[in-house]
């Protein structure tokens, strides 16, 4: 990865509405350079929050979407073969530590546990990253911070974070915003009217009450924004909700019929 | 309808002519004939009247007394009004068939229920279908000797004819046909049970009746309604059905139909709802739930002691209207449903001189409140609609505000006639609303209020020493339908014997065990397997990478597959072995060293298998079953799935005994319910049996075979792989039909101990 920090900067203010005092808390954690973990269901605004904080603090942000096939060298870096020689290429974590960026590892539990161990020396008092293949001990930039996110809800038992990893982070619990706030968010993100936004939120609340009764996860704020966007583009409200809120989350007939009815009952 | 003479103008001449044509000297006829003829002349054409009299004459001469003639004379004009007089020849033919068979006694009940039946026939269903069905029932249930003539009357037919109107109120002709077929099939040879069935007295008669009803059944939609209540209202409740079919119809009381209600025991809902007024059955349920949920959310209880019944009725009406308004405010889509379901009472339909009209006035008001009608013709309605809207304009109002409004309404509109004993009910029942019992509190306890939900000291119950039975359906291949809750299955732990017996058996097969052990080692799971030559993988495969690099340097196209990754190769398998413990297990077979019973061989085989699977570490359960009629299928646990292979299990295996019959379907279904609960990736159900499914209460050989086949199909759908090992040399005839190709027949039973573990390993390799 190139060390040009400009491309990692967040230039425009991302839209974010504070749910509690998380902005101040995050700023305090950053001031002390403490590693941060954000937890919460999918689509409730975790990534948006980190993006917003990077903008607010004026730091570059390097995001890595973790997956099962990711290895330590995907994070740290690897040698590449070139004609006649080899060349070292920094991975995203190394780059962030060099340039003093916020490194955001999204859905960290998706990565295998042996992979996540490489972040350990960066997250305690040492703030170093040993690059053993290169024979280098990288001292992290003074502005570097590590942030991870994870969704404790839907993953299996097998995919929990190790205690030794968990205990290196300060943590925020995120949840779907309060009805009032969520309606504001929908209206601001998509430009629909406030009343329609409130109706969408009430459908979302109906679906969230079914979590554990056939739904693994409720309707996320992200999906509500999708529905609002479709409505904004002239799609009939009922169709937009069916398309964006119901069909993606369930194949269960009873749940589908119930949510369809909730939509019809709300948008008469 | 032809009207050739006015009733009053029935001439003596016409009466005499009719009487002559009837030509019947039974004295009972004289008393009613004039009235009947007048009715007939009103309903029938002249030719129809003649045919009517001819038919009555036939009935007068069959020697069954006056009853049939009277029934016919009285009923036919009404039948003709419903289905048309052209149906007479068919009815006459039916009557003649009755007369020719030994079922003459059924003629009177047939005629007596005919008018009610013809009224109940759904539009477009010809009476002929009902007649055909009746004749078929007669044909199939009349007993005969030596198979030539029908010589015994059908026991169930008179009961059926009595019940027919009730049945047709809830069933279509097709449903009625299924119901009749079921009874004929199961009770054709059992007079008492047949009568109980066709008289709607027996439990399965009612169960089949419920299943065949048209409309939306609560049992089929319970989950959906539960989801509805949770999702839209954040409430939860138990749904308790109350019958609106048989029980309600057979009560034949003038009581208004029951309403939904909500109390400590749960939300009571009708067990079936038809579509009505363009609202689907499920939406009617939802409307009822929305109303009840609205009460739970917005109503506060009021004290009832100071209100008269009329005042309470008014308060309930206002409160219900408030709840509906708030529900619609929250879910505007409910408005269409409420408006469609709420009756539209006509203003002025109730005569205040004859009836108590308060109920009707309130229904008119309730309708106006629901419609938000401000231009109503009645000034009081207009005024109270306005006051109601004003009360709710600023917020949710309250139950107390509604009570005040209601009391003002009652005071304003009081009429003398409200005290009349007869209440005008037409169009006043709003059937999605509940009966408001949670709305009232009583300072004083009285006898006339229901106190069922109050806490009462529970009667001391005996400690239960065994599990209650589980009921399973059974497939009836004749009707291609399930018999609901047909089989009762009792499960328990198998009694224990002497573990040393099993150890001795295992010692006997020590050589075989050593051979198996070698096979098992090969099967043992290798946790991590390396996958080489991957283009993308978790790590670099150094050997290949160097080779590629050399290729690269020497100008040859390098192999890009230089990575490797790992795959875990764990066995994720859950196994249940189901043993047939029926009497045939006691048969003796010749084996190498003398004679052995199949039971002993099974014990050896099962012990070896259990030992092998224990070596592999797969979760493994053993259970046995046998049956003694459908009321007593026993399912015995020999080894629990997580129980280690040890002395406790060996003791149970040692005590295995043979007895009773093989009703395999229920055992398969029960075993499946255990396997389905396991979280393993692959689920295997091994069935070890030595004969075809049979039971002492089943005479049809195919029935249990078809049921077992159906059960295997159910297992497949649940992702359970079933495999049958049959010890019956003639098993090919049926076992393939039940299990498809997933079976083995072991002809030389003495080799079972060796074959069983081998089969298992082959299956799971």
Could you walk me through the main structural features you see in this protein, from its secondary elements to its overall organization?
- The complex is a heterodimer of chains A (about 270) and B (about 775).
- Chain A is α/β, with parallel strands linked by helices.
- In chain A, a hairpin with a 2-residue loop joins strand 3 and strand 4.
- Chain A has two domains: about 5-175, Rossmann fold; about 180-265.
- Chain A has helices spanning about 20-30, 45-55, 70-75, 90-100, 115, 165, 180-190, 195-210, 220-230, 235-245, 255-265, and strands spanning about 35-40, 60-65, 75-80, 85-90, 100-105, 130, 135-140, 145-150, 170-175.
- In chain A, the strands form three sheets. A five-stranded parallel sheet of chain A has the order 2-5-8-1-9, with helices on both faces. A two-stranded antiparallel sheet of chain A has the order 3-4.
- By secondary structure, chain B is of the alpha/beta class.
- Chain B folds into four domains: about 5-210, no CATH class; about 215-440, no CATH class; about 500-520 and about 570-765, Rossmann fold (3-Layer(aba) Sandwich); about 530-565, no CATH class.
- Helices cover about 50% and strands about 15% of the residues of chain B.
- In chain B, a hairpin with a 3-residue loop joins strand 1 (about 145) and strand 2.
- Chain B starts with 11 loop residues before the first helix and ends with a helix.
- Classes of the chains: A alpha/beta (about 270), B alpha/beta (about 775).
- The interface of A and B includes residues 214, 266 and 267 of A.
Features:
heterodimer, A: 268 residues, alpha/beta, five-stranded parallel β-sheet, 9 strands, 40% helix, B: 765 residues, 4 domains, eight-stranded mixed β-sheet, three-stranded mixed β-sheet, 28 helices, extended, disordered N terminus
């Amino acid at each position: 990865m190139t060390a040009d920090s400009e491309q990692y900067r967040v230039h425009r203010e991302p839209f974010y509405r504070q749910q509690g005092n998380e902005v101040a808390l995050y700023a305090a954690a950053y001031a002390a350079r403490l590693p941060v973990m954000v937890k919460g269901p999918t689509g409730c605004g975790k990534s948006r929050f980190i993006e917003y904080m990077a903008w607010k603090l004026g730091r570059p942000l390097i995001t890595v979407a973790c997956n099962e096939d990711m290895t330590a060298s995907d994070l740290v870096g690897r040698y590449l073969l070139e004609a006649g020689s080899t060349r070292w290429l920094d991975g995203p974590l190394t780059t962030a530590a060099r340039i003093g960026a916020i490194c955001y590892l999204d859905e960290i539990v998706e990565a295998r546990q042996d992979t996540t161990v490489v972040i350990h020396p960066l997250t305690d008092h040492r703030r170093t990253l040993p690059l053993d293949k290169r024979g280098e001990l990288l001292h992290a930039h003074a502005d570097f911070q590590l942030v991870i996110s994870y969704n404790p809800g839907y993953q299996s038992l097998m995919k929990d974070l190790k205690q030794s990893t968990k205990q290196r982070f300060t943590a925020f619990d995120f949840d779907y915003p309060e009805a009032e706030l969520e309606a504001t968010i929908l209206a601001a993100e998509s430009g629909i009217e406030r009343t329609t936004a409130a109706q969408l939120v009430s459908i979302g609340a109906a679906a969230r009450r079914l979590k554990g009764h056939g739904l693994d996860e409720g309707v996320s704020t992200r999906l509500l924004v999708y529905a609002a966007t479709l409505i904004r583009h002239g799609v009939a409200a009922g169709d937009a909700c069916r398309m964006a809120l119901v069909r993606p989350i369930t194949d269960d007939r009873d749940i589908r019929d119930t949510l369809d009815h909730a939509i019809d009952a709300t948008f008469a | 309808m032809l009207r050739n003479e006015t009733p009053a103008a029935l001439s003596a001449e016409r009466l005499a002519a009719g009487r002559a044509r009837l030509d019947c000297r039974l004295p009972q006829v004289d008393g009613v004939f004039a009235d009947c003829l007048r009715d007939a002349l009103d309903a029938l054409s002249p030719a129809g009247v003649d045919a009517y009299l001819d038919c009555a004459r036939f009935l007068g001469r069959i020697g069954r007394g006056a009853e049939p003639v009277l029934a016919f004379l009285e009923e036919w004009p009404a039948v003709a009004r419903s289905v048309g007089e052209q149906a007479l020849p068919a009815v006459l033919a039916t009557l003649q068939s009755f007369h020719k068979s030994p079922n003459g006694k059924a003629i009177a009940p047939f005629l007596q229920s005919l008018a009610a039946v013809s009224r109940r026939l759904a539009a477009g269903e010809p009476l002929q279908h009902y007649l055909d069905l009746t004749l078929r029932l007669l044909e199939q249930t009349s007993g005969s000797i030596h198979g030539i003539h029908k010589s015994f009357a059908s026991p169930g037919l008179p009961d059926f004819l009595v019940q027919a109107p009730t049945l047709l109120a809830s069933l279509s002709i097709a449903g009625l046909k299924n119901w009749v077929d079921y009874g004929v099939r199961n009770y054709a040879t059992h007079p008492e049970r047949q009568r109980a069935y066709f008289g709607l007295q027996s439990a399965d008669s009612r169960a089949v009746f419920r299943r065949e009803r048209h409309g939306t059944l609560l049992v089929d939609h319970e989950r959906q309604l539960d989801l509805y209540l949770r999702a839209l209202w954040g409430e939860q409740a138990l749904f308790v059905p109350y019958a609106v079919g048989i029980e309600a119809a057979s009560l034949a009381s003038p009581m208004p139909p029951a309403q939904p209600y909500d109390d400590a025991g749960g939300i009571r809902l009708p067990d079936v709802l038809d579509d009505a007024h363009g609202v689907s059955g499920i939406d009617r349920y939802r409307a009822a739930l929305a109303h009840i949920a609205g009460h739970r959310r917005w109503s506060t209880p009021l004290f009832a002691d100071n209100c008269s019944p009329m005042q309470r009725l008014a308060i309930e009406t206002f409160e219900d209207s408030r709840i509906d308004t708030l529900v619609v405010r929250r879910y505007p889509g409910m408005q269409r449903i409420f408006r469609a379901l709420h009756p539209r009472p006509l203003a002025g339909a109730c005569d205040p001189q004859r009836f108590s009209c308060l109920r009707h006035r309130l229904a008119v008001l309730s309708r106006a409140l629901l419609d938000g009608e401000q231009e109503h013709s009645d000034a009081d309605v207009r005024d109270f609609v306005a006051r109601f809207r004003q009360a709710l304009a600023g917020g949710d109002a309250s139950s107390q505000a509604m009570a005040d409004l209601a009391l003002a309404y009652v005071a304003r509109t009081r009429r003398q006639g409200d005290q009349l004993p007869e209440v005008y009910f037409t169009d006043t029942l709003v059937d999605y609303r509940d009966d408001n019992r949670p709305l009232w509190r009583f300072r004083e306890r009285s006898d006339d209020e229901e106190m069922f939900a109050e806490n009462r000291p529970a009667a001391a119950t005996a400690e239960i020493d065994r599990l209650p039975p589980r009921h399973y359906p059974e497939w009836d291949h004749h009707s291609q339908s399930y018999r609901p809750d047909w089989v009762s299955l009792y499960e328990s732990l198998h009694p224990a014997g002497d573990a040393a017996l099993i150890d001795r058996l295992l010692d006997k097969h020590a050589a075989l065990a050593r051979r198996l052990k070698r096979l098992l080692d090969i099967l043992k799971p290798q946790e991590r397997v390396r996958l080489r030559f991957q283009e993308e993988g978790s790590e670099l495969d150094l050997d290949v990478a160097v080779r590629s690099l050399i290729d690269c340097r020497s100008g040859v196209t390098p192999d890009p597959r230089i990575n490797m990754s790992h795959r875990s190769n764990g066995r994720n398998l859950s196994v249940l072995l189901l043993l047939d413990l029926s009497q045939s297990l006691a048969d003796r077979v010749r084996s190498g060293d003398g004679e052995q019973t199949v039971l002993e061989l099974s014990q050896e085989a099962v012990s070896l298998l259990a030992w092998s699977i224990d070596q592999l570490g797969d979760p493994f359960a053993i259970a046995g079953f046998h049956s003694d009629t459908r009321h007593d299928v026993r399912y015995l646990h020999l080894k629990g799935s997580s129980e280690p292979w040890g002395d406790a299990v060996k003791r149970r295996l040692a005590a295995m005994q043979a007895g009773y019959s093989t009703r395999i379907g229920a055992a398969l279904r029960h075993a499946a319910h255990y396997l389905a609960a396991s979280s393993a990736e692959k689920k295997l159900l091994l069935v070890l049996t030595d004969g075809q499914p049979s039971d002492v209460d089943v005479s049809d050989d195919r029935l249990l075979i078809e049921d077992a086949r159906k059960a295997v199909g159910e297992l497949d759908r649940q992702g359970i792989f079933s495999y049958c090992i049959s010890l019956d040399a003639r098993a090919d005839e049926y076992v393939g039909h039940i299990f498809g190709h997933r079976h083995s027949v072991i002809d030389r039973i003495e080799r079972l101990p060796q074959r069983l573990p081998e089969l298992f390993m082959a299956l799971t390799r």
